[in-house]
Recover the amino acids of this structure.
């Protein structure tokens, strides 16, 4: 097991920059999610770490040792592909044993390792099946077992749950997390599903058009994103645009919003924006004074989702989402006037 | 659904299939079955009927194969020729198919593909005579080599066994390239990448994945080459000269030179029997690879 250090990595295809000066470090034993829209360079980054192709510029170090000149079969990395890429001419056992075979591990040792990996992914009864006789979730587990049985320094997963249906996906998320904890292996996990990234990882890196936009712990990125892209990509967001005035944001109607201190604040006179999450907005009572930001709006729609209610409030032609676990919201009527209240410390200035 | 209506549905589907298949079967009967049965008949007569000469039924034509020994010897050398040609076709065709399927992309793939298919589009006779010009002493290859090499070489391959092999391999290698190309195309690139990331060398990937996974294509192509080469006569005759007497050329002689059609027909059916026997013997291997 090892840390992975990526510095100033760039990779172009023709004139198209798939990765543009990306630096990121993955700590030993951590579970990282690389998140970004399709085409943002996630797979490219993962493949460069694995050794499929070489970067145009930049450095990659695994366990503190530079791997620029190490060909992929010597990198000792476990990789799980979105398509699983199981060997169709081999049964489950032989698929998992493949990596040990090519390393020349003696038969009995290999068999023991394979059985242990099979137990870990709970597939012990299926070792003689062929890949085409397995369900999607089972193939996924075989692919995982095959990758970890070689005891790799790093585990790379490229949208491993992308091809599974929702229920199976949730099961596999839990399973994957359990296996990663048990083995304690540094894991880099590519996904375009923000919820998956939030629930599973210790740290998240957000990519956009080949650049690393933001990186940090899930709660930090969610609560205090630095960029507008991260704020809107991860979770639901209300974004206000305006002009910075002494650390406050002046909206089009002249209202001044208090904001939390942060790098996103611009100098007075500069245009800017800030974020307030739906669950941080309250619907204030008639004579509920209080401090912080207050906006008057009109309810346009209410969405009841069992444990959660979202109320859509029109404010100056802009829709603001208010989300609460409170079903009292349902008693409000569409079209009624409400006051929205949210504290300045939860109003996060953003770099656009 | 209840049992009766499913049965009815099946039956009407069967009817539809029969209607669709009818033209194909009619064609098969006319084009294959009738001529073939005529040949079976010819192989059991003493003289061709309809020529005015008296004729009777006999098995002498088949007996000739077993009594003289010369035909069996020729059949063996034809089999050996077919094995060698098939071997060289696989050795040359498989790597070409691999490069086409897994290395080249886009334009260059199309261009090379065209070059591989080209022999299919040219007339067989033209193809063989071109080889004759190339392989002759004082021919194209000879002249070319002597023009670039500082020492004198004398290439005179024409009318030799290697010339026959070269001509046949050139004619038949596209079959192997095409069948291997198809089965190599079907191998997911990420399967190869997965093997590499697990620590396998390129050679191990070839041995444990690419060859096993493309075996159906190799076997199918080999059959497509092997069977017609046993009976081939044009390449052996034109490129082999006096050394080019094989089973196929003897059969051809019976039809176009000596006009002993009954013997020619009998020899053809013996060849057919041998080919079927070989395919049957090899079928467990083929079934396993498919
Ligand atoms: N081998 C390649 N040749 C040309 N373009 C490529 C290649 N691989 C990736 N790209 C391009 O690079 C961009 C990033 O791709 P990728 O890393 O696969 O994105 P992601 O995995 O985030 O969806 C895409 O626009 C893709 O078209
Ligand atoms: Mg991708």
């Amino acid at each position: 097991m090892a840390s992975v250090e990526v510095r100033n990595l760039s990779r172009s295809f023709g004139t198209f920059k798939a990765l543009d000066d990306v630096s990121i470090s993955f700590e030993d034993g951590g579970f990282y999610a690389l998140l970004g829209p399709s085409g943002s360079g996630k797979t490219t980054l993962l493949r460069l770490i694995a050794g499929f192709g070489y970067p145009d510029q930049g450095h990659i170090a695994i366990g503190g040792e530079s791997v620029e000149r190490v060909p992929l079969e010597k990198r000792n990395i476990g990789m799980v592909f979105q398509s699983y890429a199981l060997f169709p001419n081999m049964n489950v056992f032989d698929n998992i044993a493949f990596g040990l075979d090519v390393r020349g591990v003696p038969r009995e040792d290999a068999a023991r390792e394979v059985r242990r990996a099979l137990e870990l992914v709970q597939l012990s009864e299926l070792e003689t099946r062929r890949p085409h006789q397995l369900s999607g979730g089972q193939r996924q587990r075989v692919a995982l077992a095959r990758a970890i049985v070689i005891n790799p320094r790093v585990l790379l997963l490229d949208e491993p749950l992308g091809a599974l249906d929702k229920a199976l996906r949730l099961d596999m998320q839990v399973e994957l997390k359990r296996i990663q904890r048990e083995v304690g292996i540094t894991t880099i996990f590519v996904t375009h599903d923000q919820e998956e990234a939030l629930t599973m990882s210790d740290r998240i890196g957000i990519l956009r058009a080949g650049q690393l936009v933001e990186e940090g712990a899930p709660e930090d990125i969610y609560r205090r994103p630095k960029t507008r892209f991260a704020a809107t990509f991860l979770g639901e967001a209300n974004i206000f645009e305006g002009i910075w005035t002494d650390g406050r944001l002046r909206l089009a109607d002249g209202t001044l919003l208090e904001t939390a201190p942060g790098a996103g604040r611009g100098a007075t006179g500069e245009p800017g924006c800030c974020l307030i999450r739906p669950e941080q907005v309250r619907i204030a009572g008639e004579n509920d004074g209080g401090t912080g930001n207050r906006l008057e709006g009109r309810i346009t729609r209410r969405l009841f989702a069992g444990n959660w209610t979202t109320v859509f409030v029109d404010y100056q032609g802009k829709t603001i989402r208010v989300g609460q676990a409170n079903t009292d919201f349902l008693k409000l009527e569409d079209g009624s006037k409400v006051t929205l209240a949210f504290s300045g410390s939860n109003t996060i200035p953003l770099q656009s | 659904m209840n049992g009766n209506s499913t049965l009815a549905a099946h039956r009407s589907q069967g009817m539809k299939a029969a209607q669709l298949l009818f033209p194909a079967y009619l064609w098969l009967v006319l084009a294959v079955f009738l001529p073939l049965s005529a040949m079976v008949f010819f192989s059991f007569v003493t003289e061709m009927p309809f020529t005015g000469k008296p004729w009777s039924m006999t098995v002498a034509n088949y007996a000739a194969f077993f009594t003289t020994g010369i035909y069996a010897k020729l059949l063996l050398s034809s089999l050996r020729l077919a094995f060698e040609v098939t071997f060289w076709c696989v050795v040359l065709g498989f790597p070409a198919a691999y490069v086409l399927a897994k290395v080249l992309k886009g334009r260059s793939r199309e261009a090379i593909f065209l070059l591989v298919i080209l022999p299919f589009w040219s007339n067989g006779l033209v193809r063989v005579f071109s080889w004759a010009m190339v392989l002759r002493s004082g021919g194209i290859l000879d002249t070319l080599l002597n023009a670039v090499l500082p020492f004198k070489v004398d290439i005179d391959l024409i009318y030799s066994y290697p010339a026959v092999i070269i001509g046949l391999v050139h004619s038949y290698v596209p079959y192997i390239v095409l069948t291997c190309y198809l089965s190599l195309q079907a191998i997911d690139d990420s399967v190869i990448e997965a093997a590499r990331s697990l620590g396998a060398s390129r050679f191990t990937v070839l041995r444990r994945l690419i060859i096993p996974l493309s075996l159906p294509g190799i076997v199918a192509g080999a059959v497509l080459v092997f069977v017609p080469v046993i009976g081939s006569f044009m390449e052996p005759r034109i490129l082999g000269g006096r050394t080019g007497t094989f089973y196929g050329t003897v059969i051809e002689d019976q039809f176009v030179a000596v006009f002993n059609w009954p013997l020619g027909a009998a020899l053809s059916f013996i060849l057919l029997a041998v080919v079927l026997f070989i395919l049957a013997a090899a079928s467990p291997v083929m079934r396993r690879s498919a």
Observations:
- Chain B touches chain A through 17 residues (CB under 8 Å).
- Chain B has one domain: 68-289.
